[in-house]
Amino acid sequence: MEENDMFEEKESFWKKKGFYISACTLLVAIIAVGAVYYHNKSTDSDSKLMADIATEMPDTTAKVTASPDVRQDKDTAQTNAKVSENILKKEDKPVSVDSGKDKSSTDSKKKENKAKKEKTVSKVSQKTQSKPVSAAANQIKHSFHESAGLLWPVQGDVILKYSMNNTVYFKTLAQYKCNPGIVISAKKGTNVKAAADCRVTKIEKDDELGTVVTTDIGSDFTVAYGQLDNISVNKGDELKEGDVIGTIAKPTKYFSEEGSNLYFQVNEGKETVDPLLLLR
To answer: Domain range for residue 225?
Structure first.
């Protein structure tokens, strides 16, 4: 009897003890489950929070894609930089706008001067072609040798001879007087040729002798041609022997009776020389 009571007490004790153990185990399990749940929830919340923070914060490691405005600002900055660089380069250059204008003006003036020079050269060239020798060669020094003689300027009879010691009769004037040259009969319009290489030194009008052309043949000798028309030379022209000086003109009133002619005079220095002594 006592053994049964002890057994029942022991059984009751173990039941109670088992209950408490079970209760503790259940409590521990509940606590563990709650802890796991709380831990998971906390982890999820932290992950979500970190995700939200990551979403809101820019990714510094990601490649930044510039917006259109940013690209435009960048392009504008680059353009401005290039413009500034070009301006600095232009400023470094010594040529200015004004200098460009001056250069253009200088080029225009050079072209005008060149055109004027070409025009002048053209005129001189034309003159040279129309004349035996251009006046530009007026530095030629002529030398006349008496032994070489003079070319007859026209072919004709001598109607009035040279006479400085004796007088000769001038039919038109009806008087006797000295004659420092000779008068050669020639038809009006006949070409008059240079008697020697020479330079034209004077062209003048004379009441008695008409148009007179004087030439320097060198060695202090000069030759004058009177009663001329259609003069084809100018003062300073260089002529070769045989070049045409002009033509025979209508005689002046002082030689109307003698008819058309050439007045021909030779001087050595200030003294006259008989042309017939030199004509060959």
So the answer is: 158-277
Q: Establish if 139 belongs to a structural domain.
A: no
Using pLDDT thresholds of 50, 70 and 90, give the confidence band for residue 52: low
| Residues in CB range of 142: below 8 A, 6 or more apart | 196, 197, 198, 199, 216, 217, 218, 219
How many domains would you assign to the chain? 2
pLDDT tens figures, 94-108: 544 455 555 566 677
d(CA 80, CA 99): 27
Instruction: Look at 275 and 22; give whichever has higher pLDDT.
Output: 275
pLDDT score, position 31:
81
Q: Does some domain include residue 68? A: no
Whether 115 is in a domain gets the answer: no
Q: Is 269 contained in some domain?
A: yes
Q: Residues with Cβ < 8 Å from 15, sequence gap 6 or more?
A: none
3-state secondary structure the chain: CHHHHHHHHHHHHHHHHHHHHHHHHHHHHHHHHHHHHHHHHHHHHHHHHHHHHHHHCCCCCCCCCCCHHHHHHHHHHHHHHHHHHHHHHHHHCCCCHHHHHHHHHHHHHHHHHHHHHHHHHHHHHHHHHHCCCCHHHCCCCCCCCCCCCECCCCCCCEEECCEEEEEEEECCCCEEEEECCEEEECCCCCEEECCCCEEEEEEEEECCCEEEEEEEEECCEEEEEEEEECCCCCCCCEECCCCEEEEECCCCHHHCCCCCEEEEEEEECCEEECHHHCEC
The pLDDT of residue 140 is 83
- Tell me: do 163 and 272 sit in the same domain: yes
